[in-house]
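User: I'll paste a sequence; please echo it back and then give the predicted structure.

Assistant: Echoing your sequence first, then the prediction.
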Amino acid sequence: MNTVDARGMVCPKPLILTKKALNELPPGGRVALLVDNDTSRQNVERFCKDNGVAVSLSQEGAVFTLTMTKLHKEAVAGDEKAYCGPEVPRRPHVIVFSSDAMGSGPPELGAILLKAFVNTIKDVTPLPSHLVFYNTGAYLVVEGSALIEPLAELQSMGIAILACGTCLDYFNVKSKLRVGAVSNMYTILETLSNAGSVVRP
């Protein structure tokens, strides 16, 4: 495995050397890149991820070693200069449950689909920051819901669960809340407004 030493270099030089080394490799070939600044490390990782190259990272002191494996026979064609800047942080998404079923078909099917949806949330990245429950979706977080256990697991993973207090009062189930916190419309609107995106199953 070849090693490209880009210590002391700033972007785009590490990326230019990376691209050149990768394009000299057959599929399955590997190359290691040494860099000593975190911006270059992030940019090379993003470049690899977007251009069909597997990458693993290790660090010793201030030096990062990125071990890259070329996955495809095609040339790596990404524009390295486009990656020479910090990645804009992505705001997490929020999932809204406005019903106790998924979709508009038979209620029994909707309940099955929604259970599968909730059980899959933990396996998909990135995780949402919040789960919001209103209208008949409020029934999902109260006693008798089949989703209390998987929702509690998501809450333990750091996902905030907000239940509409007005809805709980309307259905007379506030005392039966079993997971999450009672919320209000101001907090719900603020959460949705600050989300990177809103997902509605």
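DSSP finds six helices and nine strands in the chain. The domain at 94-199 is CATH 3.40.1260.10 (Hypothetical Protein Ychn; Chain: A,).
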